[in-house]
Amino acid sequence: MKSYLRWGGLMLLLGLTRALAADAGVVSGKVVETMNAASYTYVLLETGSKKSWVAAAQFPVKVGDTVAAKEAMPMANYHSKTLNRTFDVIYFSGAVTVNGKAPVAGAATDLPVGHPPMGKGAAPAGPDLSGIQRAAGGQTVAEIHAGKAKLAGKPVAVRGRVVKFNAMILGKNWLHIRDGSGAEGTNDLTVTTDTKVKVGDLVMINGTLATDRDFGSGYKYGLIVENAKVTVE
User: Fold this and answer.
1) Strand, helix or coil at 209?
2) Could you tell me if 185 and 168 are in contact, meaning their C-beta atoms sit under 8 angstroms apart?
3) Cα 60 from chain centroid?
4) Structurally, what CATH architecture does the domain formed by 2-98 represent?
5) Which residue from 80, 112, 115, 170 has the least number of CB within 10 angstroms?
6) What is the tens place of the pLDDT at every residue in 4-20?
7) Residue range 190-218, pLDDT digits in tens
8) What is the distance between the alpha carbons of residues 50 and 62, in angstroms, rounded to a whole number?
9) SS3 150
10) Which is nearest to 70 in space by CA: 111, 127, 28?
């Protein structure tokens, strides 16, 4: 089992050194193992060619169910003190469905520093997005979503405010930016970079847009700006 997870982690690392996503990561598959610990549910998913561990706020599930974990963020070499177990790669999810339906959300507890928020309502109100000006010669977040077919593989430039930041996950810094444009599903852009920023920073993003990226282990992105140059303004 560990060899599967280690191989999946290497695939993710290779993919991420080239590229993060406007669409949250999605890991899906059939449950082959499950356990509860510290108010969270851990499930091992058979995604097709690989098996991937996912954790979310505790929810009812059994072996054989089909689980889709949205907003999934990978953590490498994560050690659970409660389980006394180290996971080569585990995906922490903020929203799961079981057999196509959303389960009743469990009560989340505090996570170690660096974990993405999990569970419905976990994300706080974001920074003020008013007055953010379009990048000269660039695009808004909504325009990148709308024009993704034409922009795929091409450089994009977008100004936005950091609403989420996770440092050094699988060798890259991951951030989400918003600029006030778009609606739910088209108002957020995820970026990978070597630059360190913090939530609330106004940043200029320059990078190549990729679409429909599959990094293995069932981890997929609809949009992602990879290896971006990020300038804090």
Assistant:
1) strand
2) no
3) 23
4) Beta Barrel (2.40)
5) 112
6) 444 444 444 434 433 33
7) 898 999 999 899 999 999 998 987 755 45
8) 19
9) helix
10) 28
**One-letter identity of residue 98:** V
Residue 111 and residue 78 in contact, taking contact as beta carbons nearer than 8 Å: no
Q: How many whole angstroms separate alpha carbon 104 and alpha carbon 61?
A: 11
Give CA angle at 112 (108, 6), nearest 5°: 105
Beta-sheet strands, E only, within the chain: 27-37, 40-46, 51-57, 66-70, 73-80, 85-92, 95-98, 155-169, 172-178, 189-193, 202-214, 220-232
Ranges of H-type helices in the chain:
2-16, 141-146, 148-151
Total residues belonging to the chain: 233
- Kindly state the tokens that stand for 173: 């810094």
Backbone angles phi, psi at 133, to 5 degrees: -90, 145
Tell whether the model's pLDDT for residue 135 goes beyond 50: yes
3-class DSSP state of 223: strand
Tokens 């010669």 locate to 137
Distance between CA atoms of residues 10 and 77, nearest Å:
12
Residue 19: predicted pLDDT? 36
Token match 């950091």: residue?
Answer: 162
